[in-house]
Amino acid sequence: MYIRKLRGFTIIELIAVIVVLGISLAPVGAMFYQIMAKHATPEAIQIATALAEGQMEIEAGKRFSSIVNSGPTIFSDFPNYAYQTIVSPVSLSLANDPAMSQYKQLQVKVTNSSIGVTVNLVTIVTVK
């Protein structure tokens, strides 16, 4: 009776396959890591939005004459985030005052430059 030998992979063949897969998948893994490291996560957007809302409340609560351009300034509790306050005149189509001296457009911009998140909030303030 003839017995047929079953032949599997040798250890050398298995090591060769692992080396080839490792070499071919390393650049793909590096690209994936770079993309994910710079990707804006929902958590980062939520933090930036909350910081922008808080800073908007602070700025809008100031006296009208005290609302001026400022920043960029880094948040002390969130060192990766910075805010900038941008004050500009209101367009005549939005303002009831032709001189536009009673209205200001207030923009608060919060950025996280390490992952590319920017949140802009805009409102119009007037003399209280």
Which keywords apply here?
128 residues; alpha+beta; 2 domains; 4-stranded antiparallel β-sheet; 2 helices; 36% helix
Number of domains: 2
Derived from helix and strand composition plus strand pairing, the structural class reads: alpha+beta
Biggest sheet strand line-up: 1-2-3-4
Globally, the shape reads rod-shaped
Q: What is the helix/strand order?
A: HHEEEE
Can you offer a commentary on this structure?
- With 128 residues, the chain is an alpha+beta fold.
- It folds into 2 domains: 11-39; 42-126.
- 36% of the residues lie in helices and 25% in strands.
- It is built from 2 helices and 4 strands.
- The chain has helices at 11-37, 42-60; strands at residues 70-74, 82-88, 103-112, 117-126.
- Strands 1-2-3-4 form a 4-stranded antiparallel β-sheet.
- A hairpin with a 4-residue loop joins strand 3 (103-112) and strand 4 (117-126).
- The longest helix has 27 residues, at 11-37.
- The radius of gyration is 29 Å and the shape is rod-shaped.
- It starts with 10 loop residues before the first helix and ends with a strand.
- The mean pLDDT is 82.
